[in-house]
């Protein structure tokens, strides 16, 4: 890829990240192109579909969350690793408004550009959950799919004005419900 084309592509991705943070995943591609100061045709040349744009934007974050799971797996206790990863994943999904809906759909759609990244991310969380379950520190009646759904549910709270102030407390409640060996929250919210 030519240097100017790479620069345009990177600029479009940066503009898309800002737009999605502010307006959600349904932001108009024209708005993203305008923010990137490129024509819609330039945006579409790099990203022929909305999903292709989102996949390019989100793949790096998915990959980072997957690497983070591996790091936590080797550096933290099973329960701390699980809760830390869950907290990081929820924080990341709240950054891009509406992404949880796309992630849930992509898990089921093998043709989705986001499918492989979402499956890999879910598997990383499932490994942390299984490790905590093996250590007797997490409920055994949930799996990676349940954990992925809990991430989506917890992220949704941040988009709800009346519930957003309670999001941290509710995260602690959910984390405590997952863990069997210790409560993750000591103080009432």
Q: Could you characterize what this model shows?
A:
By secondary structure, the chain is an all-alpha fold. The chain contains 9 helices and no strands. It has helices spanning 3-23, 29-36, 40-46, 50-75, 78-95, 99-108, 115-134, 144-158, 167-178. Helix 4 packs parallel to helix 7, helix 7 (115-134) crosses helix 8 (144-158) and helix 8 packs antiparallel against helix 9 (167-178). The radius of gyration is 18 Å and the shape is elongated.
The rounded distance between the terminal residues' Cα atoms is: 52 Å
> Globular, elongated, flat, extended or rod-shaped: what is the shape?
elongated
Summed up, the helix count is: 9
Largest sheet: none
Number of strands: 0
State the order of secondary-structure elements, H for helix, E for strand: HHHHHHHHH
Radius of gyration: 18 Å
The average pLDDT value, as a whole number, equals 88
Any low-confidence stretches, pLDDT <50, length ≥5? 182-189
What structural class do you assign from the helix and strand content?
A: mainly alpha
Percent range of helical residues: over 70%
SS strand fraction: under 5%
Task: Give the topology, please.
Blueprint: H1 3-23, H2 29-36, H3 40-46, H4 50-75, H5 78-95, H6 99-108, H7 115-134, H8 144-158, H9 167-178
Give structural attributes.
189 residues; mainly alpha; disordered C terminus
Question: How would you sum up this structure in a few lines?
Answer:
Residues 182-189 have low confidence and may be disordered. Helices cover 72% and strands 0% of the residues.
